Amino acid sequence: MDATQGINVVAKSQSSPSRKRKKHDIAFMCWIPGLVLLGLMCLPEVVPAQEEMASSIRRYKAYEASTGYYEEYEVLPRRQRAILEVPGVTRGLFRYSPASAEIRIRSRLADSHRAIKFYKRRPCEDCHVEQTRDIHTVRANLTCRQCHGKEPIASIYHYYSPMNPIRKHAYVCSKCHEGASISYSSYLVHMPNPVTRSAKEGFPLLFYAVWIMIGIAVSPLAVFIPHSVMWGVREFFVKKDKDKVEHNKKD
Amino acid sequence: MSTIKKTRIIRFSPLQRLFHVLLMLSFLTQGATGLSRMYVETPWGRALGSVFGGYESALAVHKRVGIFMICGFMVHILYLLSKVNWRKFPRSLFEPDSLVPQPRDVKDFFRHVGWFVGLNKAPEFDRWGYWEKFDYWGVGWGIIILGGTGLMLSYPLIASRILPGWFLNIAFWIHRIEALLAMAHVFVIHFFIAHLRRHSFPMDRAMFEGSVDIEAARHEKPAWVARLEQTGKLEGVLVAETTSGLRALFYIFGLGAVATGVFLLIGGLLNSMSITW
Questions:
Q1: Which of A84, A194, A227 is closest, CB to CB, to B173?
Q2: What are the respective helix, strand and coil percentages of chain B, to the nearest 5?
Q3: A 113-152 residues with CB < 8 A to B
Q4: Which residues 135-194 in chain B show a CB within 8 A of chain A?
């Protein structure tokens, strides 16, 4: 005797209109797997994850797709800016913290590390510790030079720097993210730890979004974990039979 | 008909049970693939990822299963629309068989907590306890948040055409926190309520078998059984217990899912200090 047989027995014992509804249910149930299969057919094609698609064979294709220049021909450029943007904010959403005056001063040099003592002998992470703690570095195992290039490394706002926001999407991002636009390249690669004060200064929207999410996540757990523990403990002190008798008496 | 002892009340339809099984499988897959990427810096994370063929293909699996879950969510919305009693529409949502939260649930919650600490008698629950309603709506909330941010992160070029690219930074963190919340809720609270507490230890079979023991229901959901008795519908929803073979299968499947979830929970907690947050 399995579950379906049990339900059939119940169906027989019911009156005719409900049997009709049951039939209707079965017809509906046949639709569900069909819809699920249809959904499965819409799944995207299996491809390697896009962010790791650096290729030496396809050469400039990524650059071309991001700029709209194919060899020397300019084609209709694709839209580079996002449709929805934060009003009034074009650049400087991630403003530097007051402590980073050093960076601000050095952000327009042709050689950003000019006149730093013993520069040649020091690895990048001697000074840029925070910049080694992001997904691009930790997970994709990119080295600094794969994006920032060889010496001399130009400051990010130097006019001819590949890191200048006017061309970063084409010269840097599109090496791996084919078709990257200016909007796309405003993704902050060296993301600050979003719960810290430096994030509040540098990337306030991320800071507030993350703290709101933490609040949403912690509050149900803070209610339900003690709730469940108390429930579990309380159930040890229930005398099942006695309760049942009490209930029957009430009936 | 009288040869079989009918001792169980129907609680879930076969279709609802199918939804739950699909949700279980896809949720555990998403949890495992997602954690394997989050913990790739640790040996535990790499071992977890190797089950799915490594760091890259874990993402491929994660994206496909995610889209499958979104499809399932849409199918479930169609199912809900077909189940709503449109004739008595606004009122039918607040019937006791409905999962829509009602003021009564808030009252039940406080009275239930009062019962834990010995202030009053246990509240008489109807068909759905407030914790079950919370679990049900939590899945919908989770799929909307995780599915939305997940789609943004899977198709970043399209997403950055609509929103500025730095929204992906935010989407990434929302996805991560919401996923951790979902796993913590399922692997701690849901498992505790459905498996570990004395009433349902070692496993509440209702979601697999589709029915609950009438005595157990009388104990935990007295208002529901009383309502069925009063309206004379109780006879119609009684069924017999399934075969012992099927029961064994339910236990193996359900406890296997619990083991997987607890493995992810413990591994995640133990290794949480050795990853870059």
A1: A194
A2: 70, 5, 25
A3: 133-134, 138-139
A4: 138, 156-157, 160-166, 168-170, 173-174, 177-178, 180-181, 184-185, 188-189, 192-193
SS3 content of chain A, % helix, strand, coil (to 5): 55, 0, 45
Q: How far apart are CA A187 and CA B169, in angstroms?
A: 6
Q: Which two tokens stand for residue A189?
A: 């690669």
Which residues in chain B are closer than 8 Å to A7, comparing Cβ atoms?
A: 10, 14, 210, 239
Query: What Rg value do the Cα atoms of chain A yield, rounded?
Result: 31
Q: Which residue of A has its CA nearest to B124?
A: A247
B6 has which bridge partners? B240
> Percent of chain A beyond pLDDT 90?
14
Dig out the tokens for A235 from the structure.
């159930």
What's the gap in Å between the CA of B48 and the closest CA on chain A? 15
Residue A101's contacts (CB-CB under 8 Å, 6 or more residues apart) are none
CA distance A200 to A192: 9
Give dist(CA B128, CA B96) in Å, integer: 8
Going by pLDDT thresholds of 50, 70 and 90, the confidence category of residue A103 is: low
* Tokens of residue A81, six digits: 């800016």
ipTM (interface predicted TM): 0.90
Tokens of residue A27, six digits: 């017809």
DSSP bridge partners of A73 = A70
R_g of chain B, CA atoms, integer Å: 21
Work out the percent of chain A whose per-residue pLDDT is above 70: 65
Helix (H, G, I), strand (E, B) or coil at A162: coil
Can you tell me the mean pLDDT for B165-175?
94
